[in-house]
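SEVERITY: medium
COMPONENT: batch folding queue
REPORTER: lab tech (J.R.)

DESCRIPTION
The queue accepted two submissions in a row. Attaching both inputs and their returned structure tokens so the on-call engineer can compare them side by side.

ATTACHMENT 1
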Amino acid sequence: MAKNATTLQAKLVKVFLIQVLLISVVTLAGIYAAKIMVQDVLVHEALKGEAEHFW
């Protein structure tokens, strides 16, 4: 019985660590995507403002 409990505990720890890893990867991917989108919008707005200023 003790062996089964240890095996179950090991499985739970493994699943927990996999979930933490996946959540971390998805979070970083979301932050990177938001950064790219915001950066694109800011550059576009800056260029549009410069174009209006000179024309």
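ATTACHMENT 2
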Amino acid sequence: FSIFEQVLRLGDAFDHTGTPKYAELEKLHPSHFFIGSIEFFFASSDKVWRIILETQDRWIAYRMKGLKLSKDGVQLEVLAPGEKDRNLPGWELCWPFFSKLVKAFCHVYQIHPSLVYITNAPGKIIYYEEEERETLDYTWDYPTRRLEVAFVFAEDPAERTSLLRMLKERIRSKANAIRRGEIFKIAKGEPLPTLQKLYDVEKGGFACRAVNYMDKNWWVR
């Protein structure tokens, strides 16, 4: 984590176990301790449920002017100019929790995922200038991953097919928007496949061996 995050961790906003105090949460900046997001979507009269994880392979930030902290009236250089301030393995930190969350969902509702897709986009690197002013660079070296796990509860075959088609169109539309975006064009490094289908119940199951982005226990009761 960044120097500021480490300092905050030792402050009054956290208890002795490292857990943030509820009353102090609103005082923390949204970027502090951020490693990714998990979203839940419920649509079509609750017959389509989606759980989405979005994070980067790594979260990288540099302090272009370095960083100094004051202790007992003495300025201490804790980061040299241009030194890396934040270097977090986003996917590695998010995946265990997300995988268990989906597995628990499958167990509680006695259902398996109907679709699993992953959308890849260029990740961002932050360069902090003076007074927290920042510039961004985009790269395929640390891509943003958006993993979508969808469940269809419809029992009627025709309705199920219709809902799956709607989901696929929505996912493809999101991927096409990334391909057309300016970030995609300016990102450094070798582009990844923007959209990968990992599992499709209509096509007989697993579409590829992307073991890092799925847990086969999701399909075990």
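NOTES FROM REPORTER
The mean pLDDT is 87.
No errors were logged for either attachment.
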